[in-house]
Amino acid sequence: MQWAQIFSDAYIIGFMLLFFRLGAMFIAVPIFSHQSIPPTVKASMAFFFTIVFYPSMPPLEIEINVTTIVLAILSEFMFGLAIGIILQLAYNIITFAGGQISFMMGFSMASAIDPQSGVSMPIISQFLSLMALMVLMSINLHHWVLLFVHDSLATIPLGGFIMSEDLFNYIIYATSRMFMVGFMIAFPIIALSWLADIIFGMLMKTMPQFNLLVIGFPIKIMVSFAVLIATFTAIMLIVKTEMLQAFNFLEMFF
Asked: Quick check: pTM over 0.90?
């Protein structure tokens, strides 16, 4: 790349489109979209990686006028958001499962602000979400996403992303899978909680002096915590597998 080409209109607009692609990714992708990261830091990281990826940027293939530039910017935002939605749906499996577990344990009212999404959620969901975030960082998912965006420059030209029917169908599939796998993760605790309710109901029929509020709920919480500890490794492995499957789809589709 010659110095005269670097400051040409095509490369300046290409730099801007690459910045929007990375910026949308930092807004939507798990780990990068963490609410504790200030927007200025996200913008600075997007600008830094734009400079890093700039030498490998292919020549711009769109016409340089106001209409095509605006459409190209929207296309880059859609590209980054599509990546974020697919990975976020796989990540939200653990949040949905934690909500079901909290409800069965009686902790649905005990909520806190989740630092990942910035919304209020049950404490079990928040704990599992933070643990899943550590697992994703341990497998270097953030590195994979950056390398994927770098490799996408060769397959998807800047401003050339179009939301296809296959991608839309996969998002619908991933949404349904989020509920199915999340319920599967929470099922052991849900089943034992139902079994405990049946046992406590039989005890109250045979022993009317049995105080469910004083004895039953602590036992139910203790059993739920024991099952959660016993299945914690399997839960993290499921989340890891789902994230890898979502990332493999990104590599095959894009």
From this structure: no
